[in-house]
Amino acid sequence: MAYGTNPERRYSYGEVSDQDRREFLKALGIIVGGGVAGATLRDLRSEVSSGAAGGLAEMGKAVQDGLTGTLDATLLSEELTALTESFDRLPEIAAMGVPDAGASAYQSLTGPAWTINDHLSEVGFFASAEENLPAFTPEHIEETTRQLLHIDSLPATLSEVGFAEQEQTALVVNIVNVREQLSWWMATPDYPPADAVDDGVVHEYVAPLHQRAAEGALLWIDGLDHFLWQNDVLLTEEMIDNGLWDVKSMLGGYYLLGSAAHDLATSEITDEHLSALTSGSTAIMIIGQEFLRNDVIQITDDMRAPLEVSR
Fold first, then answer.
1. Which of 49, 130, 174, 202 is the most exposed place for a label (fewest CB within 10 A)?
2. What is the pTM assigned to this prediction?
């Protein structure tokens, strides 16, 4: 699986075209014939083998063994339930359009996820994930995606928070079709140190990869109320709609991460599925924030609302 995939043309906003499906399967080494086939997760599963999961199983066991604290199943269950209510509010936010001055509609979506985030950080989950899971190499993306398609509970988990079948497929297909975005994110130790190069980092101040992805997604969502209000005259309905898909994707990624942690706390997840869901959910959150920036934040002249349009 090579990079350089022209990601803007391959990103699915909740709907997967036949061309998107073909690109996804081609990247996994599967050449499909003519005709339009289904593109649900179950359809793709029938075309994609799970591959060897031994490496993922070893990694998942290492992630569990590397925890420095005990996961609280009750806390995770309560906050995941609260997070489902955030998804229930998305239609209301869509109908709202641009928030009023001082509104906190978007910020109100992330409270349960922040609580989960703090708990995962406290028990060393993020640190252990970075230490024991590879960054987003082509091989790891392919292995992770194949395994995701063969997690029986994945469609039901995403359905719990309102992802329709095509939207579920888009989340997984995007991991492969816009994988170039993922290659830009490295494990903290892999960044050059500040004392070696001008744009290096002080490693102790940089959070682990999966934590950076999770917190970055939540911070982008938290900042949208003020940003959208401030840039009201520049925004089009298409930009807002695309941004809402990005937000839903990021929240969906966090729901998958929190669900995996909960199932680990209750010993209801296999080691290979823990690896796949940790990497897969992180990938979804990275992709969502990368495209939120493209869709809404970095407004260019060719995408902004016409000057004569006013609300």
1. 202
2. 0.95
